[in-house]
Amino acid sequence: MILEAFNPPVFAKDLRGDLRFNESMASHNSWRAGGVADNFYLPADLEDLQVFIASQPITEEVLWIGLGSNLLVRDGGVRGTVICTCNRLKGIAPDPGGLLRVEAGVPCAHVAKYCAEHGFVGAEFLAGIPGTMGGALAMNAGAFGGETWDLVAGVTTIDRHGDLHRRLPSDYEIGYRSVRGSRAEWFVGCELRLESGDAGAGRAKIKALLARRGETQPTNMPSCGSVFRNPQGDYSARLIEASDLKGFRIGDAQVSEKHANFIVNVGQAKARDIEALILHVQREVHRVQGVELIPEVRIVGCQEAMQDE
Among 50, 56, 184, 219, which residue has the fewest nearby CB atoms (within 10 Å)? Predict the structure, then answer.
């Protein structure tokens, strides 16, 4: 392949990761929909990622993804560069101070399993988060009453120059499904503060949580997990169901009949169908219930170009 033909940004010559062009984003998100990314990079490890970031023009648009479980990529695709950390930044190990160090590409479910197997308690709820630690840090993801930042003792970030920084929770405004920081940095790792406990009890709790999840959520179908945040004192699923929207469908995008706060791809849904359904649900719930639902899902990319008739 002649890379110059794609006219990409200037990349360092000694990269060890996997650089791709015109990569289908439908293969990298849990809705299995969306267009292509101009540039797509899978770093070999953190050091390789530092080299890659430092090689990018300061004006280059960069989108970070893990498992793509909280992401809708529009059909027109993503201009600029996508960096995928899932199973690339995959380090997980206790440090001498008793904290658990986890890199951003480790799936949350793997963190829960590791903790249970090594006698750490308190992270069992992570088994119910279908993303990576990087994404969980970015949005304070939660499940079964637990939230990511309840465990965080510190984080490691990377800036546009490839430099690493250690930040504390006090450097951020942490809220429900919300993390705000003033710096132009991205999460590449964290330290979790956990208690020692019964490994067997931890494994049993995870098993029970996953069984509950399977009973109440459409885990066997392409979705992004919960689409909307829960309003204070209420549940988005209840409001959607009370608005008679369960099973409502646009193209192959459908409000799940099992859990109303899930939108599932029942066939070959386009991103435009999913986005249209999100907007329809918002409008109807506001009309019927008087409540404005706020999406959890991140919508990125370009609208599909209109074809000439």
Answer: 184
Q: Is 30 a catalytic residue?
A: no
23 is annotated as an active-site residue: no
Among 30, 226, 236, 256, the active-site one is 226
> How many C-beta neighbours within 10 Å does residue 96 have?
5
Alpha carbon distance 135, 189 (integer Å):
11
Instruction: Write the DSSP assignment of 98-112 as a string of letters.
Output: SPEEEETTSBHHHHH
Does CATH place domain 17-84 in 3.30.43.10? yes
Domains of the chain, by residue range, sit at: 17-84, 92-215, 222-289
SS3 44: coil
Q: 24: which strand partners?
A: 36
* Confidence label for 18 from pLDDT (cuts 50, 70 and 90): very high
Q: Is 296 a catalytic residue?
A: yes
Could you say which architecture CATH assigns to the domain 92-215? 2-Layer Sandwich (3.30)
CATH fold, domain 222-289, is 3.90.78
pLDDT for position 11: 54
pLDDT above 90 (res 5): no
Q: Which of 177, 185, 223, 256 is catalytic?
A: 177
d(CA 51, CA 48): 5
- Provide the 8-state DSSP code for 9: P
For the entire predicted model, the pTM comes to: 0.90
Which residues in the chain belong to E strands, given as ranges?
A: 18-24, 36-42, 62-65, 71-73, 78-84, 92-94, 100-103, 120-121, 142-143, 146-147, 152-159, 164-167, 173-175, 178-180, 185-192, 195-196, 249-250, 253-255, 263-265, 298-300
pLDDT class of 12 with cuts at 50, 70, 90: low
**Cα distance between residue 157 and residue 164, in whole Å:** 6
Confidence of residue 183 (pLDDT cuts 50, 70, 90): confident
Structure tokens at 232: 């204070």
